[in-house]
Amino acid sequence: MTTTETSAGVLPVMADVPADELRVAVLGVGMMGADHVARLHSRISGARVVAVSDAFTDKAEQVAAEVPGCRVIADPLAAIADRGVDAVVIASPGQFHEAQVLACVHRGIPVLCEKPLTMDAESSLAVVRAEDEFAARTGRRLVQVGFMRRFDPEYAQLRGLIASGAIGEPLVVHCVHRNAAVPPHFTSEMMITDSVVHEVDVARFLLDEEIAAVTVLRPRPTRHAVAGQSDPLLVTFEMAGGRIVDVECFVSTGVAYEVRTEVVAEDGSAMIGLDAGLVRQTGAPSGAIRSTAIAPGFRERFGRAYDIEVQRWVDAARRGTIDGPGVWDGYAASAVCTAGVEALRSGQRTEVRLAQR
Ligand SMILES: NC(=O)c1ccc[n+]([C@@H]2O[C@H](COP(=O)([O-])OP(=O)(O)OC[C@H]3O[C@@H](n4cnc5c(N)ncnc54)[C@H](O)[C@@H]3O)[C@@H](O)[C@H]2O)c1
Fold this sequence. Notes:
By secondary structure, the protein is of the alpha/beta class. The protein has 9 helices and 17 strands. The strands form 4 sheets. A 7-stranded mixed beta sheet has the order 14-13-9-12-11-10-17, with helices on one face. It is globular, with a radius of gyration of 21 Å. The chain binds nicotinamide-adenine-dinucleotide.
């Protein structure tokens, strides 16, 4: 067995992959982490949650109590170092991701890290370099980034349609990303780094090319905007091959969670995210209406995508690898968001600076 020096001390590098159930530690059991624990416990096969860690021990204990055999390990780096842990889900706040992901890479265990990979392009690139170095030695990738839309059946279908050539060359992509409301600390910059980041990954996923430049326009703000913030925003991405993606990000609509994507191509167009499940027709005092339900939040809209994402991650982690967006996707998203925040502040078209791999 080889060893490696990490912030948590000298650790064994896992040479082989677990044969039976994957023993998972979940770091951060707030909204997303608690969801992932419940998902792994009740709907995902081949894995079990053996440890949870959170800055609030009470919260961790509450979540652990729901899962037989699950321990609370107060220090997240100690959870990563624990010999009884084969793989890690990181759902702590973004500023802790870098150290936690790097500790997983240094120990050689698979990790599913919620977005963002890290808080800026430079630190994301450091993770890319660390994982590349591991991959060069072992031939395996370890870090998957939680861009779950790639696992949503509608997005997968849209990508398949583009790849089939049935609608010709894509030219323009229109995206809508709306939330009913956001907490008072949610700034316009967070609209880029927390919301539009998903469209960054969608654009790269659907069009299979990098984003070259970002521009952000600030329309007249809604009176429901968080005080002092620009909401909605109109963001455009210039893709490396000349296609344009526009994103309307509007997080105080008061309506529901609406995520739509329309691809306009040379020989047709296609749209997803219409929530057109059951269409209901009713009489109303001012005339008959036709209505469909809109998902109230992202967990309802993308619940199936999270399940597929985590099941595929578990299956891959049991083979010691990943099956989804990796470190480069996390880095590219960080680089685009860094440019996006600069574009928001300056009002100028801002080029994305991507490092060589
Ligand atoms: N993929 C998605 O659609 C999606 C949706 C929401 C959130 N997220 C991401 O998931 C992550 C968590 O978001 P959330 O909404 O669950 O936040 P949250 O605030 O509800 O939960 C975060 C939890 O982490 C704990 N924590 C704080 N410091 C920690 C540390 N050093 N180590 C471990 N835990 C720590 C907090 O006490 C809290 O319980 C963020 O990176 C966020 O961007 C992704």
